[in-house]
Structures are given as structure tokens and as C-alpha cells.
Amino acid sequence: MSRSPGATSAVSGAVAPPALRFQRAGWRDPRLWVGVLLVAVSVVVGARLLASADESVAVWAVAADQGGGATLAADDLTVRRVRFVDDADLGRYFAADVPFPESSVLTRSIGAGELVPRSAVVAGDQVDLVQVPLEVQPNRVPAAVDRGSVISVYLDDRAARRGADGVRALVGVTVVDAPAYDAAFAVSGHRQLVVAVPGGTAEAFEQLLASMDDPVLRVHVDG
To answer: What would the CATH number be for the domain defined by 57-126?
Structure first.
């Protein structure tokens, strides 16, 4: 098949467009300065976010449940980082950038991980603590109770049949001594525990105990 003369002349007469060459952006190109500005803004914003996140402060907290009357030692404490909305709130706690005061005693129970408030701590020589011995039937005290345990003690007057729960006589107290079960049981047939209790609380407990004809103690582990 032969080509038409008109088609041949049209093809040969077409002019090809000039080739485009890539030109690298120069320092006067506004697009370059826009990119530099975006990078700078990103760096500033990121730095401010990191600075804001680092505004938290290290504060002393208890590592495990601690009862009233417990003397806090280094092993009882841990450090938590906290960001306070009001800087004045930090003054209510103990900053961890200084050692925790030695021989500090809790005046109330504190849960594991809770910050140690200054209002709940007194110096060891300023607190009126009494060690109160308890004799509990073995089936009325959890086997895991040991020195350092935080417990509550219930009293039930078996003669008056007060009920299954009885009276919650001691709340959140710390066991300061727990002789070996075999040694205590061999003498009295009971599990012996010694708890640290503020003087006024100890007196009230003894009065309640004396008011019952046939008191029965039961121990619950707090926390």
C-alpha cells in the first residue's frame, strides 16, 4: 500500500519541541527558603514539647503498702516522676533529689505507689507508738502475715454474738514482729503478732478488748 504524498510532507514538516532541562533551585529560589523555615519551626516545636515533658519532678513514694506506725527505710521507698500543675503542691511531698529523712514514721497507712505526704510523716522521736501484742487463733489469721504486713484487726464478742464481722478495732496497722508460728503455737496454741499503734489507739483497743466477755480476734490483710 502506497503512502499519500500529503501525509509524508506533514510528518517531515513537523517541528520537535525543545528539550526541557532540570534546573537546580538556587539560593534565591523562594521554595528553598520555605523549606528551611518549615524545618526550623519543626525543630523549635519539638524542643518545646521535650522541655514540657521534662517538667516532671522526682518524688519519694512507697514501694509497697505501709501501715500507720511503720518506720520508713530506704528499701520501703521508690521514686516516681510527677508533673504538678501548681508548683506549690510539690511542697506537700518529699522531693527525691534529697535523701528521705531517716527514722521517719508514718502516722497513717499509705498504699503501694502512693506519694509520701509530709502530713503523714513524723520524726521517730516525736511519735507516741506502742507495741501491742496480739494472740490470734491460727485459722483467723492469713498464713502470709509477717513482719511488715499491713493489717486490720476485728474483734468479736463470742458471748454476745455480735455477728460474723465484729468490730473493726485496728485499721491499717503495721506488724513489727511475727514470731515463728511453731514457737508461738507451742506455748499458747495461738499465732502471735506484734503491731505498732499510736498511744491513744492502743488505749482504746485495750478498753474495747476488756469490755468483751469472750473476745475473738480476726486479722485481715489490707491492700
So the answer is: 3.90.1210.10
